[in-house]
Amino acid sequence: KPLHQLTPSKPTVIIIDGLDEWGKPMEQYRLLKCLQEHLNKIKWIRIIVTSRPYSEIERAMINHNQVQSFDLTTTYTAQDDIGIFLEERFTQLGNDRVSKNHIAGLVSKADGLFIWATTAMEFIESGFDIVANIQDILDLGNNSMTSTAYSPDGQYVVSGSHDETVRIWNAQTGLQVGEPLNGHTSSITSVAYSPDGQYVVSGSWDKTVRIWNAQTGLQVGEPLKGHTWWVNSVAYSPDGQYVTVRIWNAQTGLQAGEPLRGHTDKVTSVAYSSDGQYVVSSSWDHTVRIWNAQTGLQGRGPLKGHTHYVFSVAYSPSGQHVVSSSGDHTIRIWNAQTGLQVGEPLKGHTKGVTSVAYSPNGQYVVSGSSDETVRIWNAQTGLQVQEPLKGHTQWVNSVAYSPNGQYVVSGSHDKTVRIWNAQTGLQVGDPLKGHTSGVTSVAYSPDSQYVVSGSWDDTVRIWNAQTGLQVGKPLKAHIQMVTSVAYSPDSQYVVSGSYDKTVRIWNTQTGLQVGEPLKGHTHWVTSVAYSPDGQYVVSGSYDDTVRIWNAQTGLQVGRPLKGHTDWVTSVAYSPGAQNVVSGSHDKTVRIWNAQTGLWAGFTSVVYSPSGQYVV
Fold first, then answer.
1. Which residues fall in a coiled-coil region (predicted)?
2. What pLDDT, in 10s, does the model give residues 563-599?
3. Class of 145-614 per CATH?
4. Domain limits, CATH 2.130.10.10, in the chain
């Protein structure tokens, strides 16, 4: 009736876009019937309807003499448009390393789907190395491993993979412990052991975090939901009670308090102070922020100085300082109490700095960069301790100190793991070779005897840190990239998170997977961590949720911790295990009560050693 009453001066076009996605079939039928009955009565109206070529819709319209049908589904045309779209986006990014072969590969992967191309670009633009992200996408389907971690006792390794599973491996034999931990519905991005080694936590692209019993492989409780995008990173609080990114109660799965809001762009990394009182977070907004883990309040204004994305942050063991690394090629050290920068920026890298870590005694900082080097810095003077540690032939993805502080381990896209003498800067032995694709994550066992690595090749590998020899066979089970690995506190298990949406726990002695994969996440798991007591695992995912898992049973503890509205990139437990902190692309940090699962707020967090603070 309203249309009949109109007397427009010009012809009118009405567009009904995506009819096939609107309402129920009966409602679609009624709309089409109405259009048929009135098309010839309102001469000045033209109607354009877009829809997938569903037979019911075609039958309802095709025989009408005033209907013209145009097929817009030819893959060739869509591919051309996708190619133009990608070329324009890369031109805007100003990256001259993107080749025509890269674009052609992405167009082929898109298979005529614009939604795939736009989603792929979201991922490509989210990292510090665009070309590396492109290659990662082109490698998808190879079931690469995304994350690995040692159990605290060094006996097991846990891995996460693109195959949506988490697997536990015996670190001595390389054999999988039990069945894969299934539950995630997308790639796992991060895995971690609880401090006591009893649980594994995983994060996934399915937006959930899951906790698994490391002994049985069963999921502890329901998936931790709340994230609205991929979970990138998960970690247990030191006491095993909390998991981070948002902060979740590891026992109840409830979020602790409100989200920690302040960042104006995606949160990339979070960490707790050693006493658990504070959490530090970094973001694409070029800032670092410190939060009171109890109140959720920001202690001081943003720590400003970086001129590009901040990729990584870490607390010093004393909790007095925070170190950050950025795409601006610099490392900065901040006074955690005053928020003031300590000295000048640490300059030397010629490309973005991807990873930073403090030495156990807090006197040194190690950094890895896209410039293919590892560098060690004096945390007091800001001076480089020796010449750059050179050997890698592609960008360095991950660096870590051995617990005894004598060595540094690095993993690179050149498919190798390298161990360096932290005092002399010399490489210890030959590169650790075996991975058939880039190494995404490396970690030392708590006793400094072993190193675990995760890779795009879907495997987790354990290496003897003294001899450089691989211990047993690769830990295989993930069917996609492993994004995160972590040891349980007793070193007996490793937890892994993967793009395959699962978290897996591995026996480091046998190499066997412990129980079934921890499933529940519906997107990639990005980060995993053990609770300090080893009883639980926390995971973060691109499904926007954090999940806590019983590391013994593999069962999810409570419901998913929901609240984030975008990917969860980082999770961690508070030292007392009371809370979990999480960081997300939704620009918030959330703290969750690990017992109740109630929300405390935040997007990316890390507990201080005492468990009193979260950043």
1. none
2. 888 888 888 888 878 888 888 888 787 888 877 776 6
3. mainly beta
4. 145-614
